[in-house]
Amino acid sequence: MVNCVHKFGGSSLSSSERYQSVAKIIIGHTQPGDCVVVSAAGKTTDTLVSLWQSYQQQDTQAVADILLQLNNHQSDLIEQLLQADLKRSALKTLLEELNIIASLAQSEQLKEAQLLAHGELWSARLLAAYLQQLNVHACAHDARLLFTLNDGELRHAQNKLQCNSVIDANKVNVVTGFIAANTLGDTVTLGRNGSDYSAALLASYCDAKQVCIWTDTQGVFSTDPRKVKKAIKYAKVCRTQANLLARLGNPVLHAKTLSPLKNTNIKLAVRSSFDVQASPTHIVKEGLAKKKRFITTLQNVDLLTVEGLSEGEVASVSQLIQHSLHHFNHNGEVYLVVPAAQTYQVINYFAGRANISESNLNGCAVVAPEQVIGTLKLQALEVLAEQTIKPRFVHQDNGYVLLLTDQFIDSDVQSTLHDKLVNKGQEIAIIVAGLGNVGGVFIHQLADQFERLSGDFSIKLVALVRSQEMLFNPSGVNPQTWEKQWQLEAKKYQSNDLLNAINELDYEHKVVIDITASEQFSQLYTDFVQSDCHLISANKYAGTAPTLWYQTLRNNLAERNLHWRYNTSVGAGLPINFALADLQNSGDKITRIEGVFSGTLSWLCSKYDGSVAFSELVLEAQKMGFTEPDPREDLSGRDMQRKLLILARELGVDLELDDISLSALMPVELAKGSWDDFIGKKTQLDAFIEEHAAAAQAKNAVLRYTGLLEITCDKVIAKVGITYVPNGDALANLTPGDNIFVINSKWYSDNALVIQGPGAGSEVTAAGVHSDLYWLVQNLK
Ligand SMILES: Nc1ncnc2c1ncn2[C@@H]1O[C@H](COP(=O)(O)OP(=O)(O)O)[C@@H](O)[C@H]1O
Ligand SMILES: N[C@@H](CC(=O)OP(=O)(O)O)C(=O)O
């Protein structure tokens, strides 16, 4: 039984390393009986097309050169992937085939489709052989034995029988994309990019459950992500919009891909063979995804008017020129958008019924929900006018507007169009984890924040998450009445339930806001990023995780163009990370940061004057909610050690947590045992502090718990611990509970930049999280 038909396009097979990655994906994602449809490796079809053109122009030298080029490319792949007999046999067959092409060219008997078919045949054979070499039961199939067309129409019943008898239920079936045969057994092709269509056909003939198109982007984006950095990846795109995009010439899916799936429940996903962890885009039935906004570009096309054009003719002429064609009615005329290189063939096909209306056009199409198309058309015209691009032809239709221009729409113009037409008006889903003091205040402030940001985005709170229970509502939870809703609807959950629910969200942007202090929750960050979530954390664990994990997370974020803000993980609402980033972005070089980064330790040290025992102050702080539940977390200095690491990494210094030397604000032996044990030994703590306070006083100084990061050209000093701060120093005159950051840099060398203020507290921390959210939203615009 075929569970899934996978399709790997040319971009996924462009080198031997890519074949190796594809084989790994196949091993990890297929079961016996599954099919793998492959396209020609890299740009092989383009090379074969130029061979065909040279042959037609009778340029024998060019034909020979291209044959050599093909030979080099294919034999390199074979040499790099296969061994022993498999290699010898593959090289022998390749040489024989190239010789046959050469002699057919010489005797003027070359046929176009038969020639183009070689790209896919080579890929399927090579991949199947490579899989066999890896001990995977795999076989190669030539799709000309599976798909037959009669007069351009697929013979579905016969093909279904053929597929079901040929596809081997015990093997991975590697099938050539793009090609088929006619009833005479001659090769025909399914049009450029046609392997997507082959995969969908095969899935429908074999009753597969799903089709997975593996490509070089992570799915379907709002516009070409290679050209526009802020392109948005969509989790779900409905079939009509995917189809429309394809008809307008967008390469991410072939125009006919969806037709075999029309009356079936076969699922279709587009995902990256370069980044297997990234979540796919699902192409879903009408009504299962909201309509999205897209911009797709067109290059070098002609606009033809055709008299009495029928659907059948569009299909045949598309087949003839190997390209899907878009047609529409405009002011009573029927127009066809034709790639300029094929105009001549199309005009000939229509034998006097087609005329060129406009030639040498470029442009773009905006695909969007019907109700906004009119507005987007005006905005697009405005953007083009600002760029002095004057459209020569504008056509507004169901769900799209086509703007054909003289000038080429380069990636700058495409980005501006995207910023103005697509980025605004999107929906942002917010997932808040941690509903304690800070979380509670943050949520209550959300309603106002939504209103403030509503000019650009519609923001919805979709989930509230605690360690055991969550409330998930994709259409939004009211931040003013969430507690009531929580009582009624919160449910127990496992991490996977949360991740699946996030994956299902049909929002353009998703943000996980972590206001927990949970290490376990921070470990889900990699999964959130794979599900395309931005991150905002007050939690310190991810920022201080081992470098390998931390760096992988950062790389994944960067690859997906996602943001991670964590300003409140150090100094609560104080703008310390903003300041550091700003200084560095403006060319400054930070050399030293010293300070008190713990509100708890600041309060304890500043309050302590010997009149009340230190342990009493600890208990008082605990009662007021200033400390961690077990105040030894604070006294150990670990919390400040984490904050110093976050600051160090912010400055590009590569450190692990344990590279920061640490001495605790308590005797080491008190760290062990229960809280009651600790209280039983509190006199040891008091004696320890008294001793340090006396030593400080003897030096005309006060006892403080500080962190220090010093960066010189040859070394980094990073430590947290007890310091004796001279009276009069900024660190000595601290208001109890305040944090202070004393920053020295190239610009602030003698006279330090000082940031000081409350470093803890629900209001300021929640405000800091809002400031991160505001920053994020501004950057999504
Ligand atoms: N909206 C879009 N979403 C994703 N990719 C797009 C989009 N528009 C254009 N592209 C381009 O489509 C390319 C994928 O199509 P193609 O090269 O035909 O892939 P394959 O070789 O896998 O069949 C991407 O590399 C990307 O540059
Ligand atoms: N190789 C064919 C068919 C195809 O679908 O290719 P790709 O999957 O690389 O778009 C082409 O280049 O048109």
TrEMBL record:
Enzyme Commission no: 2.7.2.4, 1.1.1.3
Pathway participation: Amino-acid biosynthesis; L-methionine biosynthesis via de novo pathway; L-homoserine from L-aspartate: step 3/3; Amino-acid biosynthesis; L-threonine biosynthesis; L-threonine from L-aspartate: step 1/5; Amino-acid biosynthesis; L-methionine biosynthesis via de novo pathway; L-homoserine from L-aspartate: step 1/3; Amino-acid biosynthesis; L-threonine biosynthesis; L-threonine from L-aspartate: step 3/5
Domain Aspartate/homoserine dehydrogenase NAD-binding positions: 434-566
Domain Homoserine dehydrogenase catalytic: 576-773
Gene Ontology biological-process entries: homoserine biosynthetic process; lysine biosynthetic process via diaminopimelate; methionine biosynthetic process; threonine biosynthetic process
Catalytic reaction annotation: L-homoserine + NADP(+) = L-aspartate 4-semialdehyde + NADPH + H(+); L-aspartate + ATP = 4-phospho-L-aspartate + ADP; L-homoserine + NAD(+) = L-aspartate 4-semialdehyde + NADH + H(+)
Kinase as UniProt keyword: yes
Cofactor: a metal cation
GO MF, one example: NADP binding
Keywords in alphabetical order: Amino-acid biosynthesis, ATP-binding, Kinase, Metal-binding, Methionine biosynthesis, Multifunctional enzyme, NAD, NADP, Nucleotide-binding, Oxidoreductase, Sodium, Threonine biosynthesis, Transferase
Family statement drawn from the similarity comment of this UniProt entry: In the C-terminal section; belongs to the homoserine dehydrogenase family. In the N-terminal section; belongs to the aspartokinase family.
Function statement: Bifunctional aspartate kinase and homoserine dehydrogenase that catalyzes the first and the third steps toward the synthesis of lysine, methionine and threonine from aspartate.
Listed name of the protein: Bifunctional aspartokinase/homoserine dehydrogenase
Source organism (scientific name): Pseudoalteromonas carrageenovora IAM 12662
